[in-house]
């Protein structure tokens, strides 16, 4: 696994040129997983090619509490090829269009960043309790949009009937060095569906 000290790397998704580690505080679209990112990244200026730090350093396989039954294997969905079937991330429910992890046995797909979501976290709007990432029947309401969480995967408080949809979790958070974020398949910031987690 690469560390921050590796300022120049070669990556299989961009064999033409080496990628430089840059510390910019700007938004970008990752050319690995195709999700939005903010801040530090690996970049090829020649090709305008960017990778999230994690997409550049993610292992070929991993285990996750999100899918504890089997190991997940890194794959790449080729957007130029014929897509015999479309895959959606089992965590954020957005399409996978590039780098992702897959369990072929269970047809479980997850973006690299979604695979890194912590099982427990906190949010400034509900700071007095730890929130747990979970799905399943719930009477909890989202702190941000006030809609019920129902069966959706989200961060839920185990001591109250409150929680956050993944889409709503970062509506009050600003990107920065302690935030990992992903985005939607769309474009402008006003319609941005994204997530961020304090790590």
TrEMBL record:
Please tell me whether the keyword RNA-binding is annotated for this protein. no
Tell me any Pfam family this protein matches.
C1_2
Q: Which domain of life is it from?
A: Eukaryota
Instruction: Keywords in alphabetical order, please.
Output: Repeat
Name the Gene3D superfamilies for this protein.
Zinc/RING finger domain, C3HC4 (zinc finger)
Keyword Repeat in annotation: yes
All copies of domain DC1, residue ranges: 12-55, 65-115
Name of the protein described by the UniProt record: DC1 domain-containing protein
């Amino acid at each position: 696994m690469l560390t921050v000290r590796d300022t120049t790397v070669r990556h299989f998704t961009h064999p033409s040129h080496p990628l430089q580690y840059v510390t910019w505080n700007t938004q970008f679209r990752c050319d690995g997983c195709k999700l939005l990112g903010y801040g530090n990244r690996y970049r090829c200026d020649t090709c305008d090619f960017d990778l999230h730090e994690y997409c550049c350093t993610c292992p070929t396989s991993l285990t996750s509490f999100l899918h504890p039954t089997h190991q997940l294997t890194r794959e790449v969905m080729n957007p130029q090829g014929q897509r015999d079937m479309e895959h959606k991330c089992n965590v954020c429910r957005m399409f996978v269009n590039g780098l992702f992890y897959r369990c072929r046995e269970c047809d479980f797909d997850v973006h690299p960043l979604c695979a890194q979501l912590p099982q427990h976290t906190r949010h400034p709007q509900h700071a007095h309790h730890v929130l747990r990432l979970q799905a399943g029947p719930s009477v909890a309401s989202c702190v941000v949009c006030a809609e019920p969480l129902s069966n959706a995967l989200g961060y839920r408080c185990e001591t109250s009937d409150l929680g956050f949809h993944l889409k709503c979790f970062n509506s009050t958070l600003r990107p920065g060095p302690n935030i990992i974020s992903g985005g939607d398949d769309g474009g402008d910031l006003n319609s941005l569906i994204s997530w961020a987690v304090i790590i």
